[in-house]
Records
---
Amino acid sequence: MPPRLDKCCIENCTGNSKSRFSVPIVSHEKWERVIGKTLNQRSRICGDHFLEEDKIDTWVSGQGANKYSICLKKPRLKKGAVPMLNLNLKKSGEDVSTYKMDIDISIEAIVALTCDGASTNKTMLKILNVNGKKTEFKNYFQNPFNENRKIYVFSDAPHAIKNVRNRLFQNKQLKSKPLIIIMYTYKNIHPTNPCIK
């Protein structure tokens, strides 16, 4: 089978998405900065690299009982959409913080971002002066494009709960200064459940 002419230009992309999007003239430089390579008029990026909310696959018109929608044969991107998923980039925390500010904020009115405890995210939060300690708590940073607005940072709660659960299950105890949380307590709360994992 011959290779696709509109192959996705993201390195090592498996190209599972049928949708291919050309680079908008307005966002050309931003897309290049995100991807880390030069793009031309024939460059295409598949739908796997865009957030679902950035893709438009239906056309809606009317209101109430007169409202109807038509599925588009070829999806479109919302204005200002930027590839953000599965980019296969090896970025440092500093690169990630620059990426977040330069790309996301300049395009959308971002009010918050969510991140897990990965080392790149920890570095990014340190650079942005975000701190979760009780004594130095600060869960926001200044929007660089609007001094009257803040951008709040949230922890990925399900990910944090999973980490606590795994730690408790493996080590049978968890230190939370000055307390120690013991697995035995949870076994007494749920005596009928043979496995909390």
Note: Helices lie at 28-35, 93-107, 119-127, 157-171, 183-189.
---
Amino acid sequence: MTPTWRRWRWPTPRPMKKGKAGDWQVALEAAGVVAEPRDGSGSYSDRRATVDLRFDKVVAPGWRVVLANRLDVFGRRTEAGHHAVNTLKEASISWQNTPNTIVDLGRINVRQGVATGYNPTDYFKRNAVRAITSADPDTVRKNRLGTVMLRGQVLWDSGSLSALYSPKLGDRPSGAPFAFDAGATNGSERWLVSASQKFGARITPQWLLFKEEGRSPQLGMNLSALLSDAAVLNLEWSGGRAPTWEAELFGVAGPARYANKAAAGVTYTTRSKLSLTLEAEYNGWAPDRAGWDALRAGSLVDYSRYRTLMRDRLDLPTRRALFFYGSWQDAGLRHLDLTLMRRHNLDDRSGLAWLEGRYHWTHADLALQFQYNGGRERSEYGVLPDRRRWQLVSTFLLLTRWRGAYHLQPLSFLSAGIRSGPSKPPGRPSLHRGRLAAPIARAARLSVSSGFFRELADGRAFLGGIFHVGQRACHLARRVGVETRHIGWRLGWRFGSLPHRERIGLRRRRYGIDRDHGTRPLRLRTPR
């Protein structure tokens, strides 16, 4: 008769679905960076660890609580002189009186706009970014501070109506690492009204009216049109009277000037999951080509202040730019995604190129990113301190919801782990060694320089400290009743599939470390 334990299988928890209320999500991100400065002083390295938390739960009928926070810890100090930067992205409560009416109160990350690389109607982006860890525009929009506001929404089948009010809660941004930073997102009193109505099956417009304290109203429009089954046209526009950039830069009073901001792009998607986006961008508030050349040739202090102003506003420093974004899912290999982004300034001919290759597992991602900044002195991208930049990023989903309980997931990229849980026979831990470690290590050696790989090896000790913090969290979770499914106990690689585990472990009726796929297993003594 087959023993009961041999018929047992590891249950696989399912990753959380987006938009499902009542879920915790805790993700850990570890990154190693090697950059080549523009001044030729020699490459340098940096490390980063990130903990991203999101809680979304329906606490009572009609009531919903959302909390999202991100903590970035850098090896080098930031411009503010700190190693850590905390970003409270969202903290709000929602009340749904009827199926078509929603009222939200708290810190909310409102992201307006249909364009990809530049969003003129994203009125709440100013001073909202505390730390930039990627050149991807979508990542920057997601990982920023929300704005404290009161928002009401009315929904129907083909459209919606929304109105929000944001009060003034501070005067200036804070550089403290764990600041609530209300002065950055709520430095003035603002309100926004938006309405959208779908016309037919191909055209969806949205109209916006924005007003800020002491400034003229701004009108905005977003339009998405389906050109064919594979092509989509996105138009975004915002216009209104505003103080000139000279008045903003030098703090002098002057007449307001009407300015237009726009972005127009086409996205084409093929059957092979290849998506290509080409976008033209325009900022009428910025100086023209002659004004930009004069600013570059003038005082370095004024030029630096202007670049800081535009960086905080997440705006184009010049009037005209081109943007290209291409992404390919399952690029010749299942779960492998390739991304290419190119920014080109039409006024000073500088540009940025960003490439990423990302492989997905069930609860982990591994990505290799490369960024190149090219241009002449004091151009938009030629002034950036790094000419080339490599980054290896590992993302792990640590805590998920599965079968009504919360589970701490393994750090699949970091360690071999003892698998234990209430459904497994007690006293029978088993460690296994994966088969993908050597190929991935060889690919990493070929993809990056030897200095980068040495830095990555040194960074394992840094990640090990974070890993021990995760172990402490596991023990604490067990004490409070959270079911712990996987715990890793040593730093290393851990990959592998269920049939491989069965072959080297379960079918041999041995419980312990299998160092070379079953040829010389190490037996662990366990209490009976």
Note: The longest strand covers residues 44-60.
---
Amino acid sequence: MPGPTVTVIIANSLRSGSWAGLTNVVGTQFGLVLMVGILALGLQTIVAAIGEVFVFLKLLGAAYL
């Protein structure tokens, strides 16, 4: 089931042509890459800040499994 992004891409493609739709796709993918990169850096910072606690959480998770 398409989400709102797909709906916008289809609407812009039908209204303004395939180039507008392609521009929306490129913008959407750039935003996705940017968000994933920020998330990865944030998680890396958190894990580095709580190193010993993270080791304990890994052991706790392994014990749970």
Note: The mean pLDDT is 92.
---
Amino acid sequence: MERVKDALRKSPGQIHIQYDGWKSAKEHKVWRRRGSVRKWHNFAVEVSRSDTWTDMLKKVQAVESQLSDDAQLKKHRPVGVVVDNATRWLSQFSMIERALVLRPFYNSFVQRASNEWEEVNLTRAGHIKKGSKLPFFLKEENRMTADDWHVLGTLYD
């Protein structure tokens, strides 16, 4: 028992990381059951927690807006996600509003993120490297569908 206590004292960061991973996965599962708003919430939380994903989202927006023929999209300036929280009044509305701003860029972002993740985490044989986990927002069941976007649009209006 002393060895275990000693190991825990020497590496509290590892326990914290494992706990956060468990909590995050469990929290994600709970939120996913709550429909389209929660599906976007999970996406926003995961992207906001990663500088890599946030930067990639902004780069995708910059490229897509430059290549677009749509005058509105050409004027678009890259933005990050907005995450709702329990203590800020109307934060869910702000999150939905930003989701709708990001909608034109969502599929391109997910495709690019998926390609980059696979490039880094798949072996030459196409297997996932040991210890690698596909981000929640890249899993097919967690991706926004046309129906999800319709629900967000209806809630916003």
Note: DSSP finds seven helices and no strands in the chain.
